[in-house]
Amino acid sequence: MLSIIIVVLNLLIETSVSLTVKVPPDPIVAHVGSTVILPCWISPPENAEALEIRWYRHDQFNNPVLLYNHGKIQDTQEEPYRNRSSLTLRSDQSGGLKDGDVSLRLEKLRVQDDGSFHCYVSGEHSYDSEEVVLKITALGSAPVLSPKPLDDGRVNISCESSGWYPEPSIMWTSDEGRALRPGGTSHSRGADEMFSVHSWTAVSLSDAQLVSCSFSLRSGELKEGRLNIQGIVSSGPSDSSDSSDSSGPWKALFLTFLICALLGLFGLILYKYRDKLTGKKPATEICKEETPERLTKEVVGDINVEELRTHAVEITIDRESLHPDLTVSKDCKILRDSEGYNHTGEEFPFQLCAFGAQRFSSGRHYWEVDLAQPNIPPKNYWIIGVVKDENFTTIDRSALTPSRGFWFLRSDGPRGFYTNTDPPVKLSLTPRPERLGVLLDYDDGQLSFYNVTERKHLLTISSRFSGSVVPLFNPGAGDLSTLRILDCPKPEEPAESSQPLLSNNSSDA
Ligand SMILES: *[C@@H]1O[C@H](CO)[C@@H](O)[C@H](O)[C@H]1NC(C)=O
Ligand SMILES: *[C@@H]1O[C@H](CO)[C@@H](O)[C@H](O)[C@H]1NC(C)=O
């Protein structure tokens, strides 16, 4: 009788100590690439060292993320989780397995880890399991804004960013924080499951000067890029000519006709009113006289290279500060990567910098660089700009910003053309420039780039210079063509700037 009671009591005790596992009620949120702990514990605490602990996903009970059995982790992890998963403590106070803590540690998170994980614990007489939800997020790259002038005076601004998860929302705003309507937004998904987003909006200067584009996740994390369109619009017609070569003059012609028509109407009224014309020039003739002025100076907006060249200075490469993997010609004008230099990797070779021997701390200075030689395609890779005098050693990519004294335009092969401003401005320049003009207006804080062959203004970077700045060149790696600094033919009348020319008087290479 007594033994029966003991057996029944034993059974009762066995069943009353059935396992219960607990997990946090809310999802765990973690970034791609980071390490996360998925807490799971036995409650009330019980030594789990002799139990089976199985972490698995969905219905993959037999292909676990992690399996602990017979006192050790079994070598049966599903391939994508091998070497990434382990048992861990859910907090510093945790007593570990002995205390029933069976939390999972997962490293190098991927988008594919998004979703639920089952925490299954089994003893000899009972088992229990719960589900932990893991939410993966990925904060994408800094948005890159690229402007493209439209025929109607507005600018089409594109904003791109990649590496997002889940799909971010995008918002365009003006400098006063007013929302701007996106013209269109498209998403695409890469092999890594992450989202790339491209959005565009068309704005005019009256809508906004400073346009901001921001991508955000529901968690509130966001990345923002800004672009000041003032320089692009106000220097307007010359920029827009790259997309509207023909419409510029037509618009001018239309404008001229409109003025003619108005003047004509005015003349007609005058005529009708007075009923006779007394020695007054017909309105149409006035228009004809005005036309050439308007067309060349205001509307067509081709740059005047001769005018730019009045500021020409002779630039040579400073041998002293030349990167050892670069080669420069005897006359210090032609630059390229050394023959033995073997560039590996995708990244632009930012370190291959050369500096001009001339320093500028006021005035306007202009120089031209040849990026193509006869029968050889134009260079794909280059950096051209200016750098603050003392900055020759910081060639770490992250240090190449205007605030650190670098201002430049970079051609990165098929990836396009970028400024080093924050955020960078991406330009689509086709065809590739064969000859680039650079105008440094120190006092106005402007660095302008021109396509000399096509007589086009490309872009102006506005900044404030301090101390002296020197020309910056980087010929990239692997191009056939060299980077050659030209001796600009100076116009007849002497340049207004009194910059001393270098004594290096080697003849044109
Ligand atoms: C896991 O690590 C072992 C040795 O530490 C290594 O041999 C194996 O290739 C790794 N497996 C994976 C999938 O990375
Ligand atoms: C603006 O540019 C995008 C491409 O970046 C293009 O898809 C869109 O049609 C353009 N919009 C206008 C109004 O030109």
TrEMBL record:
It is found in: Membrane. One of its GO terms (cellular component) is external side of plasma membrane. The keyword Transmembrane applies. It is a single-pass type I membrane protein. Residues 1-18 form the signal peptide. Keywords: Disulfide bond, Glycoprotein, Immunoglobulin domain, Membrane, Signal, Transmembrane, Transmembrane helix. This is Butyrophilin subfamily 1 member A1-like.
